[in-house]
Amino acid sequence: MHDLVILTGASRGLGLAMARQLLAPGLVLLCLSRNGGEGLAELAVARRATLLHWPVDLAEPAPVADRLARWLGQLDAPSIASATLINNAGVIPRIAPLANCPPGELAQALRVGLEAPMQLTAAFLHATRTWVDSGWQGPRKVLNISSGLGRRPMAAQAPYCAAKAGMDHFTRCCALEEAQYPQGARLVSLAPGVVDTDMQGHLRAGDAGAFPDLQRFLDLKDRGLLSSPDEAASQVLGWLHRPDFGQEPVADVRQ
Question: Within 13 Å, how many C-alpha atoms sit on residue 243's CB side?
């Protein structure tokens, strides 16, 4: 038997770090991202793990969710020990007031950051529910990578903040739904802390005139308060394997 993990946004940053740490014998890792993560294929061979990559655009999530549902429906469920979906992909649009955010960037941020996780979660829960109905007894988990910015407002990033707030709340809703079923899936929307990724670099490059919080992000870097992607990935995956995973559907690794 093997464990199955589906991971979005695995080509860089936190997602790539999680993919590297997940690869292990007896695991099948399906990565959904525009590009394959650097060195992942070689690492999978070295660790005798199974790595699959679908080059997809999560700004158009409905076809991806449909493909995932069909793929899960064709798997041999009895050979799978556990099934996990990690929604990690996100997009930071232009750092500017909402009134100045181009419509295309606004739409992309919401599609990648909110619609895609909802579509993929719906597909995952529906497909794996049929496994359970057929007698499969493995655990099912959904881990949504959220952000403190989904819980604290910030000027010049309304689309990103809104996407993460929506992620938190749809996770709460799905957790209530799954709690009604025997062997319901467990879901958590987890803030990973402040991680030194390209996204942080994008924020630090903002215009102080349009981004009132710029100095805060510069200070975090200067004071060495950012976690490395590897450190954050270790904390996030550690949370995924906690025995109480899912008891609180919205959480923070710093709790």
Answer: 0
How many CA atoms lie within 13 Å of 165's alpha carbon, on the beta-carbon side? 12
Encode 161-177: b = buried (16+ Cβ within 10 Å), e = exposed: bbbbbbbbebbeebbee
- 190: β partners: 145, 251
Two structure tokens written together for 145: 């990578």
The number of beta carbons lying within 10 Å of the beta carbon of residue 216 is 12
What residue type is 160 in one-letter code? Answer: Y
Tens place of pLDDT for every residue, the chain, 255 residues? 899 999 999 999 999 999 999 999 999 999 999 988 889 999 999 999 999 999 999 999 999 999 999 999 999 999 999 999 999 999 988 889 999 999 999 999 999 999 999 999 999 999 999 999 999 999 999 999 999 989 999 899 999 999 999 999 999 999 999 999 999 999 999 999 888 766 655 666 656 555 666 667 656 666 765 679 999 999 999 999 999 999 999 999 988
CA-based max dimension of the chain = 59
In angstroms, how far is CA 156 from the centroid of its own chain? 23
CA distance 128 to 170: 19
* Residue 41 φ/ψ, nearest 5 degrees: -60, -45
Strands 80-87 and 50-55: unpaired
Distance CA 112, CA 130 (A): 27
CB 5 within 8 A of CB 128: no
Can you read off the two tokens belonging to residue 149? 């910015």
CA-derived radius of gyration, the chain: 18
The Cα–Cα gap between 94 and 102 comes to 8
